[in-house]
Amino acid sequence: MELCAKKHPPEEERRVRANAREYNEKFQYASNCIKTSKYNVLTFLPVNLFEQFQEVANTYFLFLLILQLIPQISSLSWFTTIVPLVLVLTITAVKDATDDYFRHKSDNQVNNRQSQVLINGSLQQEQWMNVRVGDIIKLENNQFVAADLLLLSSSEPHGLCYIETAELDGETNMKVRQASPVTSVLGDISRLAQFDGEVICEPPNNKLDKFSGTLYWKENKYPLSNQNMLLRGCMLRNTECCFGLVIFAGPDTKLMQNSGRTKFKRTSIDRLMNTLVLWIFGFLVCMGVILAIGNGIWEYEVGACFQIYLPWDAAVDSAFFSGFLSFWSYIIILNTVVPISLYVSVEVIRLGHSYFINWDKKMYCAQRQTPAEARTTTLNEELGQVEYIFSDKTGTLTQNIMVFSKCSIHGRSYGDVLDVLGHKAELGERTEPVDFSFNPLADPRFRFWDASLLEAVKLGDPHVHEFFRLLSLCHTVMSEEKSEGELYYKAQSPDEGALVTAARNFSFVFRSRTPKTITVHELGQAVTYQLLAILDFNNVRKRMSVIVRSPEGRIRLYCKGADTILLERLHPAHHELLNVTTDHLNEYAAEGLRTLVLAYKDLEDGYYEDWAEQLLRASTALEGREDRLAHLYEEVERDMMLLGATAIEDKLQQGVPETIAILTLANIKIWVLTGDKQETAVNIGYSCKMLTDDMTEVFIVTGHTVLEVREELRKAREKMMDSSRSMGNGFSCQEKLSSSGLSSVLEAIAGEYALVINGHSLAHALEADMELEFLETACACKAVICCRVTPLQKAQVVELVKKYKKAVTLAIGDGANDVSMIKTAHIGVGISGQEGIQAVLASDYSFSQFKFLQRLLLVHGRWSYLRMCKFLCYFFYKNFAFTMVHFWFGFFCGFSAQTVYDQYFITLYNIVYTSLPVLAMGVFDQDVTEQRSMEYPKLYEPGQLNLLFNKREFFICIAQGIYTSVLLFFLPYGVFADTALGADYQSFAVTVATSLVIVVSVQIGLDTGFWTAINHFFIWGSLAVYFAILFAMHSNGLFQMFPNQFRFVGNAQNTLAQPTVWLTITLTTVVCIMPVVAFRFLKLDLKPELSDTVRYTQLVRKKQRAQHRYLRRVGRAGSRRSGYAFSHQEGFGELIMSGKNMRLSSLALSSFATRSGSSWIETLRKKKGGDSNANSPSGGADKPLKV
């Protein structure tokens, strides 16, 4: 990204003085102009061409063009290369220019926005680009913030203002910011014009949630934090106006600092193609060397005798030099083995696949009006090769819509409904929910079924009152009252909103807040608490506290946080209460609920005064401010009194268990990486069928030291190997120990295992000396759950699998904490959910529900991989068949670099005659329908094993192309060698060219598995266009217009009028195609692929349905019992009872792995490194298909 300002050395600190442009300009801070565009009118052409020729392919074809401009070595006209090259460069340039035009438009729109700037004592309208660091700006309601501002004053009381940060972090809830008390009184223009305070703060950085600075004014200093800042990209809401001092402008703002480019991702097919192109280039050089040597020998032995008739060119003085020039001539002629149209076609196909994803109505969420979106066009085929999925839990597998479900208060659990026998009532047996109609401020959407909690509130239980008082005070929720009694809460997290709403319904209603007070309606009475301090939540503390003074003057600290953190900070006196509450926490976690612990502590006035003074000093410190604040927070949050715990339900998204079951059948391993506690994560694992009761064992790693973690991993591996041996797997201990790398015996074990590991254990497992042990153990398991992990650990786990496993990884998440994981994986998928859109912005693909992942991979991904592989195989085949004819012809033309085909045919072959049919196949082809792709997940495995396009398949295509070229040349040559035919060179060229076009058209007809009207039109239309152009180029009209270019008048008409020529073309076509047809027939009969079996079965079912309809028409009565007996297949009962998948057709594959349909997949998987799914229900059936 380019920016208007010049780059300067990094700052150590920033000094900004208000209303002093001259003082601030000496620091040469960046202006507020931004530039995200890359070109202007003058630089577009040179810069864009320079960028395009960074591509090796473009440079290669430019080199060929230069060679063709040298008369001594060029046997083709320059336009055979320049036409396709200019076409490709033009298309790319137009796309780049269009993108840059919109960037220019966006830049101009932003830079020309108007802002009110305080200049010389008055407000003046200025464009954003002219705003400078140190200026004071006035913002009005619903205006975007022009730069990173220090909030000086506001129209709201106490210097408050409200902002929306959707453009910054995707969150639509309002946040509050507050001016420093010393500047909040500067409300009018005259006072602000006199303000000359100086701010010393941190240099520009990309940390959105942190700011550290100090304001110096009137010989005093005042601390500044992120709560005092308004960042560029925010919008002012519900605030009439405010004033701010520009601290960072333009490229230095945190918004622009965070707008770095995403790492460019390449697919495995891209990397393979780069290798293959190098091999082809080497092959091209070898052919050139062979033909050059032949030319030198021919000129020395034969050509020297014909100098009178065939004199050498003036520059050629020897046979050796003639061979040297011939080498370059053949490099030009044979370069079409890798035409430039290959790269254009690949991008067109990928673009088409991306549009199919965007247009898929079955991946559209009507509730949120959110379609699926392919945010990149370069990774579509890799969606068909995924082996590992790394998923967040909250908001990805679950809905992230929190519901207050249960709570524990002073040792008593509330939330369960008991029947008359004292047993817990199930959901369907519950009576009416608690009636909150007595509370006019209650939220009508809130539901709770345990009436005893409301009775405790009404009876005045002090512990229950204190519990809900804490929930109504200890939060950062903003309250908006749209009309009398109609409260609307805006919370930074769904958890907080659920807790405050629960307190609201139980008559502890959070009503309003100011910077120094919180007003709560307790049992109908308004009570205002003085807010003394907020000890905010962060990922390290995992808790938040408030210190308030009650109307009676009592100072109390209220705290809520994660149980692992808070239980360590409780007063040791209430040991029995702690045990009971811990039991309740474990019970809630076992039900998959999210838990928090609540505690409080009374503070003496003298202690608080001393602590507050230390807090002020720490907050104004220039160095080590965060560490000093953390130490003070730690000091006051000790010896707290346990109050209780909350349990919030986060329900599974619709279709998650079914999706995971089907993806597992496709041999995709799913790892869940979550910040939740172990019990909650494990319970969700069972709910979504990742973990099942049928599993051999679930290993739980909770070690706190390196030695403990290593020992637990070792024991897990030993158990897996012992179990495998006891099940008759036949591996000896020596074989296990001698296995090298990650292709160890562990990956071929029998049985299904799962691994659950905690964050502190994972930190040790990811260390360099243990990461391989962890990876080997985890990869042998069917499911892996990592609990209490940080965003960095998520990325490290993904990177570990990428580093050591030759497998495609996919990461899916919905929150900002998933961004690093999404960017690290080969493919990143963002869920547009409740946690903002940061994950979506960092992703390659996005949609709104996890269940759509099944369709993205099994349909779009599999089809994209299939289409791209078939496209590449056919493309290399047709170009080798086309080009190698020149090689054989070289032996019959004295190695003179004479071409077989007309130069116009060479130019148009890849652009017109054969481009559209292969594009249609690459965009529309299918082997089975989308329903079958979803029903038979095993169809996905060829992509994981990279079976459809690899080095072996490439060499098969090349061999077929060379075989075709031999027949294309030698059959017509043998016929035309008979002089009685009266053939000439041009007639021979027409015959070979026509045979080639017909052969490759028939071949693509055989390769096409799914015929559409577009396929028919492109294939037969291309043939028609070929003949139309052929006859036009040999017409009298073109000869009269361009007599030097089109000399062979009537040649095509005369040649194709001879029956012998058509017999030759027919014979050539049959001999080229018949071996392919025979091979495919035998393969289909003897060793069918799984897709062949599925297609065959669908045909049989259609015939059976047709017969059934016929029998119904003739009135034949049938027995349901006998019909069931004949159609039933063995093995479905056990599969259904296992609960892994309730979709019968998905599991039908177990009896479908027929006639080697299973064995060829399993054999290849074992060759790759083991079968991790050897005992899965879909891998065991080996019986022949009976229909």
Question: Can you give a write-up of this model?
Answer:
It is a single chain. The protein is an alpha+beta fold and 1187 residues long. The chain has 42 helices and 33 strands. The strands form six sheets. A nine-stranded mixed sheet has the order 14-33-32-31-15-27-30-29-28, sandwiched between helices. The chain starts with 13 loop residues before the first strand and ends in a 19-residue tail after the last helix.
SSE arrangement:
Layout: E1 14-17, H1 21-25, H2 44-52, H3 56-68, H4 79-111, E2 114-119, E3 122-127, E4 136-140, E5 148-154, E6 160-165, H5 166-169, E7 171-178, H6 189-194, E8 198-201, E9 213-217, E10 220-224, E11 229-230, E12 235-237, E13 241-248, H7 254-257, H8 268-301, H9 319-333, H10 341-359, E14 373-374, E15 386-391, E16 398-409, E17 412-414, H11 451-458, H12 462-473, E18 478-483, E19 486-490, H13 494-505, E20 508-513, E21 517-522, E22 525-535, E23 543-549, E24 555-561, H14 563-566, H15 575-590, E25 594-603, H16 605-619, H17 625-636, E26 641-652, H18 656-665, E27 669-673, H19 678-687, E28 697-701, H20 706-726, H21 733-738, E29 753-757, H22 759-765, H23 771-779, E30 783-786, H24 791-804, E31 808-813, H25 819-824, E32 827-831, H26 838-842, E33 845-847, H27 852-890, H28 903-913, H29 915-924, H30 930-935, H31 941-944, H32 951-976, H33 985-1007, H34 1013-1033, H35 1036-1041, H36 1051-1056, H37 1059-1086, H38 1090-1113, H39 1120-1127, H40 1132-1138, H41 1144-1147, H42 1159-1168
Parallel strand pairs: 15-27, 15-31, 27-30, 28-29, 29-30, 31-32, 32-33
Antiparallel strand pairs: 1-8, 2-3, 2-4, 4-13, 5-11, 5-13, 6-7, 6-12, 8-9, 9-10, 14-33, 16-17, 16-26, 18-19, 20-21, 21-22, 22-23, 23-24, 24-25, 25-26
Helix pairs in contact: 2-4, 3-4, 3-9, 4-28, 8-9, 10-27, 10-29, 12-13, 15-19, 16-17, 18-27, 27-29, 27-32, 27-33, 29-34, 32-33, 32-37, 33-34, 33-37
Active site: 392
Domain P-type ATPase N-terminal: 16-82
Catalytic activity: ATP + H2O + phospholipidSide 1 = ADP + phosphate + phospholipidSide 2
